[in-house]
Amino acid sequence: MAQDVFISYSHTDSSYAEAVCRGLEKRGLKCWMAPRDIPAGDNFAAAIVNGLNAARAFVLIFSSSANRSEHVAKEVNLATGKPIFYLRTEDLRPTPPLQYFLSDIQWMDAFGYPDDLTLDKLAAVVKTAILHRPPRRPTTIPGGSVFTPSTADVAGKTGFAPPLVETPTVAGLEVDDPFALPASPPARRLPWLWIGLVALLIVIGVGLALLLGKGDQEGGASGIQPTATVDRLASAHVLLINSLDVRLTLHLTGQNREYTYDLDAGEQMDIYVLAGAYRYLMEAEGFTALSGEKSWDSGDWEWEFYAKDYTPTP
Predict the structure, then answer these.
(1) Which of 85, 77, 76, 99 is nearest to 130 (CA)?
(2) Predicted confidence band at 58 (pLDDT cuts at 50, 70, 90)?
(3) What domains does the chain contain, in order, with CATH numbers?
(4) Least confident segment among 46-60, 136-150, 185-199, 291-305
(5) Cα–Cα distances in angstroms (integers) from residue 203 to residues 121, 142, 198, in the given order
(6) How many CB atoms neighbour CB 270 within 10 A?
(7) Pairwise CA distance, residues 309 & 290, whole Å
(8) Helix (H, G, I), strand (E, B), or coil: what is residue 225?
(9) Opening angle at CA 217, ends 213 and 223, nearest 5
């Protein structure tokens, strides 16, 4: 069964630990401490580990004896990952190995004996820490010792019968954890994921549209645009036929566009250009360049290049 608080202490501080346990339970927190909560016949080490794993928070009674206790250090090690609180029973600081685990944790002073004001503060901070934190297994520091307390150490912890705390009920049903929030289905994040993807696509589309629009404006200013894919529904289909015995290069300029085609000897090539008039320049090795004008309406056309159309280079 899940518990709110695991109380760790040295057996020499058993009276102090019992007082803290009673005080927290009177304030509505379920506590686990040895040997009170170890059933007769159970293995001490396994019971302590199970009790610590089931607890939501960890309270250490920090004294000079606890500061020297190997088993207290192992319990603190296993509590790594849980909210940890410690009460100083005297004015001292943690020494290795406790210093490793407690160096960045704020403590509370309760020298001599825990009074009601101290227990009120402790109960309040524990409740705040565990209100939205379900029980889970702690994370062990890499290289830390495995917790194997000896029977001699835990046998010195004397138990006591704490006063019964009435368990709250809801609609006649017993509530195991008075601080647990009502169960609710997990949030549905899939719609937000799709919304984010759609928004990203819209931003990309707008950016591309602005970029292409800027490119059209720059091309219009120069009078010529780079070669582009032509809409075949508003274009002329021209079959280029190179009947020369050498490679031919054809340059077309018009309709705010510029096209360049290379045809090997005897090669045929299908091209699509915007319907309209074009200036052309044809260059072939061994022949003088030939230029002129050509126009096509939308439809299918053929343009064959013969040797008789050219003047051989002198």
Answers:
(1) 85
(2) very high
(3) 3-141+154-162 (3.40.50.10140), 232-309 (2.60.40.10)
(4) 136-150
(5) 52, 46, 9
(6) 9
(7) 8
(8) strand
(9) 140
